[in-house]
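Reproducibility note. Readers wishing to regenerate the assembly model reported in the main text can use the exact inputs given here. Chain order matters: entities are listed in the order in which they were concatenated for prediction.
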Amino acid sequence: MESKTILEVKNAGIQFGGLKAVQNLNLKLNQGELVGLIGPNGAGKTTSFNLLTGVYVPTEGDILFNGERINGLAPFKVTRKGISRTFQNIRLFNELSVLDNVKVAYHSLATHTMLSSILRLPSHYKGEKEMEEKSLEFLEIFKLEKYKDELAKNLPYGQQRRLEIARALAAGPQLLLLDEPAAGMNPQETHDLMNLIGFVREKFDLTILLIEHDMNLVMGVCERIYVLDHGQLLAEGSPEEIRNHPKVIEAYLGEEVHDDNA
Amino acid sequence: MKKSKQFWLFIIAAVLVYTVVQVLIANGSMNQFYSNTLIFVAINIILAVSLHLVIGITGQFSIGHAGFLAVGAYVSAIVTMKLDLPFFLAIIVGGFVAALAGLIVGIPSLRLKGDYLAIATLGFAEIIRIVFLNIDYVGGAAGMQVSHLTTWTYAFVCLVITIIVIVNFTNSRHGIAAISVRENEIASDAMGINTTYYKVAAFAIGSFFAGVAGALYSHNFYIIQPGQFGFLKSFDILIFVVLGGLGSLSGAVLSAILLTVVSTYLQGYPETRMIIYSLVLILVMLYRPKGLMGTMEITDYFKLWRTPKGGGQHGK
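Running the prediction on these inputs yields the following structure tokens for the assembly.
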């Protein structure tokens, strides 16, 4: 059974002055896949995410989401189309409570107007109540409900990472982009997180694109992997193929030293 | 349920304060000086709270608030003095024209951030002042005669409306969206918030109430001149917000009351007035570096009272 293509990136690239940070990027994600994006430091992984989410406008190529061209859209519009993300360096709303952090993401799905809130019309109370209930559901999935009134900045590091994913889910995405979700976590936390990602993928029928440094983790959960190096796609394939790909090994471990140039 | 209880407590307290002052004014036991000071306190609270929405909630560092005060003051004065229309209409028109000015200034300048936004808003406020300075219709530098129409009732009703609107805005999905812009604009954008919309909306609402304050302000004196709306006036308003604690509405209210009263009483000592006023500011900032209230609200203290142990949700 051929599943539907949700995201297609065609020859996308971005140039900062003379530097081509990413070029000839071609990705294709099918509905429901969990795909990894790996590469050495500075390979352009996060830049690619920024291209997908509208933070940067590609200087070349096209990005199609559900067949619709989305390059050039403002980030908030991309999110409303159904692509949501987390950040490599956690970007929570520190002075807001854990619950309010999730509410912010649910905001664009709520409909009560500013005027109804100022005048405290019934639609305000109804909308706010629904928003709170939905947000609590997300917190429960991530086992964060006991922290709901805590300020986000006071959460332990691992919980902050989880909250960021909960928040990204509350925006109602079809495609979730996770930028190093396990960075700084211990093996146990990483393991739990991976189970959780698998769980929400099933529950919300998500397609996930994941940047990660932890090779074991990427090889363990991803169905397909793209490898970036120096802003270009180096290889693509199943974890097994990537593991034995000569160019990938070269990019990570350096070139094999031949006897004659020693 | 809890929130609406708070709301009714606020209304009861407001009615109580209003009635007591009104009775004292009516039976003559409060003289002109005190009632004028109270009106002035109310105007300053409106200004502080409206700027709190822009700086404290949405995090946009605007230091040109006196420009919108000037727009409200002049427009309302034109409505009552030149067009002979009633005062309450002048307040509303003053507010709306100031909000319009806020939109015109806000849409281009809110693309800027931090220091750059501050300088741009300061520049716009000066432009507004100089425009009034050069329009002969409103008297130019000599100023414009305005009847004394502001009463305790007008000032207090406007104050209560301002606080209700801004509190209701803040405690809704729209307020949370605005705070998310303050906390992390990139993340807010990535979560589907139209950040420009909320920045401009907060700016326009803030300008509206600055305009309302302007209408009350101009009709509380007998003359308005462009010189009253210079950048020092903007800084006075900014000080209310910063001293009260960025992000705290009750802090803004408290510091507006405190500073207005201090500066009114110091008028008796013109030689040392500015020195003492400055010392008060320095001392508060030394001992309360996050402002009088930090980011807390009065209602948070009540919660802490009730749960002496577990109430640390807003701790430092």
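We highlight two features of this model. The mean pLDDT of chain A is 89. Chain A has two domains: 1-82+173-262, 94-170.
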